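Entry for the shared binder. Reason: the reviewer on the internal report wants the predicted structure included alongside the sequence.
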Amino acid sequence: MKFSCFHLMPYRPLDMTERRKYRAAWVVMPNDLYDPKKGADEYASYIDQLAYAEDLGFDNIAVNEHHQTAYGMMPAPNLIASALIQRTKRVKVAVLGRALPLTNNPMYIAEEYAMLDVLSRGRLIAGFVRGIGTEYHATGINPAFSHDRFHEAHDIIVSAWTKPGPFEYEGEHYNVRYVNLWPKPYQAPHPPIWIPSQGSTETVNWAADPARKYPFIVTFSSHELVKRYLTTYRETARKFGYEASGSQLGWALPLYVADTDEKAKAEAGYAIETLFNDYLGTPWELLLPPGYTSMQSMKNTIKNRGALGVHRRMTADELIASGTALIGSPKTVIEQINKMRDATGVENLITMLQFGVLNDELTKRNMERFASDVCSC
């Protein structure tokens, strides 16, 4: 099994009393709640944590993209990835991922990733996502075109990485007169592409297609849903005529390890509640704008994922019981990981070892304990 240390980079100094006056920590919450000096300290701490993950032996360190939110302060994850490349030597650097439909020129993403791959001498993992619904409120992109823009942007980027230029691309949403990438990626034919998702049928079918066979990473889901989505990926692969390998399957989740289950919950319980209730908690009209997904996918999402901390605050006990967060002793954590691996064959575990308002001291202790007591499972 491969282990990744993933970071959202939340804004921990957020005044929670003020935050709770607004529908969400995304888009609608005033930015006068942000202090740039405190934000600078947060970036420094978070970059230190991810660089330290290399010393602890993690296979990958990972960042991602979000806009106009206290949930994750990385509107430009390529900048963070570049800083991490300069701070590390061995570990792979994953951008999980860039929201392809939000760009008006996919060549910019092709160039950014190619630069990062060359700078790192082939250590980049390229993540592609559509971006959750709130990103479309932040950018003004019509969510009804999300799927088509994603697929076209993907095709332009991969073509730019693999085909000799210059050539022309003409599509419904993007027209590029000259596709002629400088620099080209370090890895041949291109950096590995991973697809993080919350399990939509459309994404599973697209990622599992034999033309791609992209690793599919299930995020922020209960044990039941993780098993369901990874099993669906395997079944979809069989329908395509091949057997998916464990390296094509990923599980991303917040995780905390301490001496006992009780101590782990005592140390991390409030932080995990802030992650899901205060940072992530988002009403459906922001999370799923009209046209963002099919009606059936929208119904399934609402049915499977509950209120997302908007209509009812979720407790640490509920999040732990559902497996949405893995918090406990090394024995408990290892047992849960092994159960999921036995049930699905998953070989990529993407751990969020800092989450919500979890402080630096507890985060470092969590990282060290996970590396020493769990990674060998």
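Summary line for the report: The CA atoms of residues 238 and 244 lie 8 Å apart.
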